[in-house]
Amino acid sequence: MSEENSNLSSKSYHIYDLDATKYYFSIKHLLETESNLKLDLNKEQYLKIYAQHYLISKNYPVSLIGLSDNEFLMAEQILSQRELNIIEPSIHGVFNYFILQQLICSDIDLIKQILNHHLYKYKGSKLDFINMTRFFTRSSIKQNSPRLNEEIRLKEVSNWATEHLKDFEEKINFDNEKEKNEAIVKLFKVTDHFFKILEILRLHDILNDDGSYKGLTNYKTEIILLIEILDEKGYLIRTNQTKRGKIFCDFFGVKLSDRSLRDERQVHTDYHKKYNDIIPSIK
Question: What average pLDDT score do residues 34-53 get?
Fold first, then answer.
């Protein structure tokens, strides 16, 4: 059955919206024409289960055990009216069932677009939707599809979830890095001075290739000397010493306790002189 359904009401909807009415007839068509169906599949029971979820979506009082023949007949009469019944994306309720049917009926090359559409429309945590697709939807297709073999379809769903989970994690990391960058830049009276200091630290091999703090010694507390010199030479705004130390440590990947950050001098004074020579005075 094509994505366009001229028999449906003219009410506007997106081609990837989950119209429960439309996909009943898509499933029915699949059961009538598909040659690769499971040998033990009960087609009538499959349609009854769909009709049961359909009536639930329309708030009809039906038994959760299963539809009687009369209830099934009623459902088919309602469905025959071809009225739109858009199921909005959710990780709860009937959406889980209907997205399964939509993905089973749709062409494999449309799966990513369909999932992208629902992810965009989903109003909760995007990560929840991705994980629902990654675990529940994928396993449901495997267990409940009327087809005998769905490996390609399963792979497409799995690839979509994996790609979006990676994008989501990268966005979180980017946001975290952005937050750290903004925090340390705000400690400097002049933003350009922060970038100038980074260049100087790299030039003197005080930073690792990934931007973390290597230092001149094996002491983690050495970073306190850098902060002191920057403060003494007027680069930094006045703020709480421990808070300032935490921001520097967080940015440069140094782990120090609050107590260590409060200690004024923990590295030999010779290195204080070296940092004093490395960090230029503000002109």
Answer: 93
In the numeric block, which tokens belong to residue 70? 């009369």
Of 185, 251, 262, 184, the closest CA to residue 221 belongs to: 262
What pTM was computed for the model?
Answer: 0.61
* The pLDDT value given to residue 123: 82
Q: Give the C-alpha separation, 227 to 197, whole Å.
A: 11
The whole-angstrom separation of Cα 276 and Cα 225 is 9
Helix (H, G, I), strand (E, B) or coil at 19: strand
d(CA 105, CA 24): 10
Confidence class for position 7, pLDDT limits 50, 70, 90: very low
How confident is the model over 71-78, as a mean pLDDT? 92
Q: Which residue is it, tokens 């429309």?
A: 121
Q: How many residues does the chain have?
A: 283
**54 three-class SS:** helix
For residues 208 and 216, what is the distance between their CA atoms, to the nearest angstrom?
Answer: 11
